[in-house]
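Reviewer 2 asked us to include a model.

Predict the structure of this chain.
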Amino acid sequence: MDLAELTAPGIAAGDLLAARGESIAVVDGATGGLVSAGLLARAGASAYYKGGGVIYSLKGRRIVLGHEPGSLRGLTSATEAYALAQAELIRARYDADWGIAETGAAGPGKHPLGVASGTSAIAIVGPQAQRASITVQTGSDDRLGNMEAFAHAALTLLCDVLGAAQPPA
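Predicted model (structure tokens):
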């Protein structure tokens, strides 16, 4: 996958966000920032992209999401429930209309918590309690290939959710 293919759904999502006057904040995990890159590939991204971060540690999670200690206790990385919680937190942190989060294991090998390489959970939270989540399993140990697949899946899901969502009145 080349950069144009990777960013195409991000640019389309950016078009929808800009046309609707809505904003988004992003939590990248195993994608290493590629979800943000996809949204920032569109000229004029500052009209809708509020910010975000790449979370790779507990300290980083607390800094990026600004959550209360213990508020994510009981949630496991690389699950849809965890991704939904992160999407909600990043949305609130940046006062954005939409929040998107990706959490997974790009590989190679197992994630420290035992998550299989090639597994990613992606979630989107928006206005009027709109929520969507998916789990992607590539079955691959190819780190870069997984990062691309996860980011493309996240941006495609975002595009689909935005396309189906009712714009604000």
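Strands lie at 24-28, 49-54, 98-105, 119-125, 131-137. The domain at 3-164 is CATH 3.90.950.20 (Maf protein). We have added this to the supplementary material.
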